[in-house]
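Quick illustration for those who missed Monday's session on complexes.
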Amino acid sequence: MIKAKYPVEKFLQLQTPFYYYDMDILRQTLQEVNRQVQKRNYVVHYAVKANANPVLLREIKNAGFGADCVSGGEINAAIKAGFPKEKIVFAGVGKADWEINLALDQDIFCFNVESIPEMEVINQLAAAKNKTASIALRINPNVNAHTHQYITTGLNENKFGINLSDLDTVLDLLPQLKNLKLIGIHAHIGSQITDMTSFQSLCVRINEIQQYFFQRHIMLEHINVGGGLGINYEHPNHFPIPDFENYFNVFSEHLNLQPHQTLHFELGRAIVAHCGSLISKVLYVKQGATKKFVILDAGFTDLIRPALYQAYHRIENLTSDLPEEEYDVVGPICESSDTFAKNYSLNGTRRGDLVALRSAGAYGEIMASQYNLRSLPKAYTSDEISAL
Ligand SMILES: *Cc1c(COP(=O)(O)O)cnc(C)c1O
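Prediction with pyridoxal-5'-phosphate bound:
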């Protein structure tokens, strides 16, 4: 089994479970995204909800990215990390009044609005502050992302965005909402998308929507196509950096941008997933009636993706070179869904071994909970660990 290189000696001094962030991988990823977008003049906003660890946020801000926020808490975290206000976008189907007021006070770049009632509230709150809110209409493009149903967002049956059939009503209403300024459109069809034809379909749909806006004599300055680029969870050692070139090429080739228009992206997972691992200690190896269980000190309170989306994370035993055996790898939490992998081949495993759950940098630490009154997992960067 090919394994990643980890500072195992240093790990053994630390209390498990914890998240480990490899800053070299993060930096290489950010560099590659920048290399691809700079030649195309695209703008990338990092989707803060994937991971809001302050050290990572600062690194991403320093690389020149904007921030895509889905709550007031994320707007505060982005500002604290130093993201410029004019690079912050705010999406979400249920923005509370205090969150809208915060975004107005901070003069963020754009609200991605998702319904008529939301537009009315933003208009009213902006009027009370004598401000004009820049908005992009988040459109539900009815495009299938071919991903897990819980992370599909762009189908008519989903709660997100404005349906195409309601666009007439929205545009008829807009002139009355004097404190809103329409600057663009936005769409986000889902997450962990590996089939590029889904993004191609999104481009085709946006081209149609653009035609509709031309017919209504509305100029859109900004087109925001959201995020969703998937990563290779099976082979993080072979493909530690997603194929951004191929991804951005889909948009260069299939989206008809006007010369005055700027294309925006909101990538989360593809930027931070591979740099993170959850490091956990083996508490027990237990012989069950029909199979062997490896019982870790990490559970779904630390990494919920397998329990929530039946997600796969590669697992490596960092301290064993024994011949491989098959195990169910489980956590200590009192729920049967607290299972990381079934019938999984690991090097022969014993109590006290350290394992790495790979590609856990996105939707890992940020989704941790204290269920069973457990402590939240700690997090270390490779910079911190090498200074130990
Ligand atoms: C979650 C989300 C993203 C990021 O999705 P990834 O799959 O992590 O790239 C982008 N935009 C919006 C509106 C989101 O909700």
